[in-house]
Amino acid sequence: MYFKIVYMQIIEFGTGDGSPVIHALETWGQYTGVIHGFEISPSAATAARHSAAAHGVSNQYKVLNSCFFKGLEQLRPSTLVANPPYVAAPDNDIMMPALHGGVDGANLTRDLMSLGLDKVMLLISSYSNPVETLQHARRQGYILRDFMVTAMPFGKYSSEPKVMRWITQMKDERKAFFSPRTYLLAGVLLVKPSTGLRQQKDLTDEVLAVMTALH
Ligand SMILES: C[S@@+](CC[C@H](N)C(=O)[O-])C[C@H]1O[C@@H](n2cnc3c(N)ncnc32)[C@H](O)[C@@H]1O
């Protein structure tokens, strides 16, 4: 297990300001490999690089200003980490188009699940069609091995009237689950059975029971 942790190749979709990976590298000392982060926004990529340097982790965190799907062609990663854009809206004419995740909010998430990587760790929102999204992961052959769920307040972009009207409609179709005060965000670890991790219990039903609770 130790060797898997040390040598696995990690790739990140959508670095943003880089803070989640920088924090993980600072607190998770065993990992000695390199994480390649891809960020499509030039200003965010620059900020992430500066921040990695300021925290002394730029030798382990290489941030590239490129579309993730193009960059992937150059690397052969085993593991993907991502907090993909998940704002659901009929089109990307919203306050923050970079956070548009498609009509149901989960297009990019499903694309990432379809790449066939051994391990995928990503965030899934309860208002972005979580049931279909996790069924998609199952169809791709993933086992949901572990998860954490946290309550999120609606922020500036998720409470934009156009978005709120859309996800309220999705709620009626059981594609979105939230209360007036909060939605849920799950961090899930998906693994292919071929990774040989000892405990292979699939927790998809358990995470869905939690993610659909606010209906
Ligand atoms: C929800 S933010 C996550 C930022 C950061 N990882 C975090 O968790 O705080 C999603 C990020 O993905 C970036 N992004 C969107 N599409 C992308 C693509 N095709 N390739 C690389 N980055 C992309 C956006 O610019 C945005 O910074």
TrEMBL record:
Molecular-function GO terms, alphabetical: methyltransferase activity; nucleic acid binding
Lineage: Eukaryota, Viridiplantae, Chlorophyta, core chlorophytes, Trebouxiophyceae
Source species, domain of life: Eukaryota
Protein known as: Methyltransferase
Single Gene Ontology BP annotation: methylation
